Each structure stands twice: as C-alpha cells, then as structure tokens.
Amino acid sequence: MAPSNRSTPLSASAAAETLRWWLEAGVDLALDETAHDRFAESATPTPRRAPAATPPSSAPPASYEARPAPTAVAAPDEAARSARDIAAAAATLDELRAELERFAGCGLKATATQLVFADGAPGARIMFVGEAPGGDEDRIGRPFVGRAGQLLDRMLAAIALDRTQVYIANVVPWRPPGNRTPTPQETAVCLPFIRRQIALSAPRIIVCLGGSATQTLLGVKEGITRARGVWREYQGDDGSTIPALPMFHPAYLLRTPAAKRQAWADLRKLRQAVEALGA
User: Fold this and answer.
1) 3-state secondary structure at position 22
2) In whole angstroms, what is the distance from residue 74 CA to residue 184 CA?
3) Burial of 82 (0-12, 13-18, 19+ CB in 10 A)
C-alpha cells in the first residue's frame, strides 16, 4: 500500500523507498499538487493565441554589444604572394618589423599575444633561427626567453658569446596555439619575412636550431639528427650563399639530455668558424 502521510521529514532511506513505490505504480513525473484530468483537457482544443505584433526596429537591442568584424585571412597562395611583395619592399629591419605588425595574412596573428620579431644585435656576424615562439616568448615579445632560451644563453657562454654578439629570430614570428608545430601553409606565408630579415641583417654564419628551421631555410629532407653538425649553405634571394650549421633546438636538449654531447660538438664547430672570421 502507499506510504501514509507523515508530519515528520522522511529519512533518506524512507524517501528512496517512497520514490520506488511511486515508480512501480507508474508515476514517473511530478507536475504540481493538484490532480488534472488529462483526458478531458485533451478533448477540448485550446485556442491558439496570436503572437503579439512586434514593430520593426532598426536599432539593436539594449543588450547588444558592438564588436569589430573579424579580419579575414587571405588564402595561403595569395597571402604568400603578398608576403613576398611586402617583405621585398622593406629597406630596413625596422620597416620589416612594422610591416609584420600590419600583416594580416597569417592566421596565427589572431591567436598570438604579440609579434616576436628578434633579439640580440642586428647585423651581428652570427644569426640563430628557430622554429616559432613559445608561451614565454609570446608573453614577453622576444625569442628564446623561456627555459630553452636560458639553455641557449648557457650554450653561447660555453663558446664565449652572448646575446650582444648574435642575432636571434624565428621562421614564424607568432606563437602557434598550444606551442604546436606551424603548419606548412603558415610557414610558407612567413618564409618571405624571415628571408628578408636574414638579408637585411646580413650575417656571416647562420645557425638553424631544430629540424623545422633547417628544412625550411636549407631545403634538406633528412631529420635534424642526421642533418645536425654538417655545414651547409643558405641560398639568399640575390644568389649569395651563407654558411649554415644545423643544430639541435635547445628545447629538444631539455627533453633529451643525452644529446648534449652532440650539441657540444656542434658548438665547438661553431666556435672554430667564429674564430676563423676573427670575431
């Protein structure tokens, strides 16, 4: 039989037992305290109420907040052509940076905090080029300032160099979301800018940090494990060549400490080349 009315609150077990009793009786929906004859209600059709007329209005509602329209990103081929024209027209590094600040052809700009252009000494004899900024770089606005950058500083110090004697940049100057690898399309759009940055900085030696920078700038097909430590040539847009040395990216060395022995061998090769330049 149904549980009797109680003036005292039900315990948890008693409440659960009551619910089970009603469920077994076929009651699975509670509407209100008053019983309704649903059969009688369904037999009498309820007249439809005409919707209230709303006068047309061109003004936005009070809760509307105007937002700027999103900037459309051009198709990759069109963006790459535009990047080549814009980069070629830049006569100085400052002009190139200003053009990158205005450039809207790479979707990464919309998700990054700011442009990460370069660090170090423009015009230095040695230029280090990495893949793309990370979270610390995106926040501060300079390349290689996080843990990988601190390791790069120690690597430079090991061969009697510091940031006042080198120039540092990335192939892609905006941080990809989640520090993911830039897509081939994103790299292709940004490539004319880093090539122009190299031409305007005019280094005597280029150090490609990591496989992505090595493959993008030097056109090699093998991975960085095989490419590292072998001197190659970077081909400039004017036909000139610059000696280039691929090395492990410092972020890789943080993940793979056993590779530091190979990195030290590459650093010694770099030091020898620097000494040959008289720097």
Assistant:
1) helix
2) 15
3) middle
Per the CB < 8 A criterion, the answer to whether 115 and 173 are in contact is yes
Q: Count H helices, E strands: the chain?
A: 12, 6
Has residue 237 been placed in a domain? yes
Domain count, the chain: 1
For residue 246, which of 265, 197, 258 has the smallest C-alpha distance? 265
Q: What is the pLDDT of residues 38-48, one digit of tens each?
A: 566 555 555 55
Write the single-letter amino acid at 107: G
pTM: 0.73
Structure tokens at 204: 């005597």
Residue 251 domain boundaries:
76-274
Q: What are phi and psi of 95, to 5 degrees?
A: -65, -40
Stated as kind and residue range, the H or E segment containing 166 is strand 166-170
62, two tokens:
């009070």
The answer for residues whose C-beta is within 8 angstroms of residue 233's C-beta and 6 or more apart is 218, 241, 242, 243, 244
User: Helix, strand, or coil here: 73?
Assistant: coil
Give me the CATH number covering residue 166: 3.40.470.10
Lowest-confidence segment of 40-54, 59-73, 175-189, 239-253 by average pLDDT: 59-73
**Does 47 map to a domain?**
no
How distant, in Å, are the alpha carbons of 113, 183, 198 from that of 108? 10, 10, 21
* pLDDT of 252: 97
Residue 204 placed within a domain = yes
Domain-embedded: residue 43: no
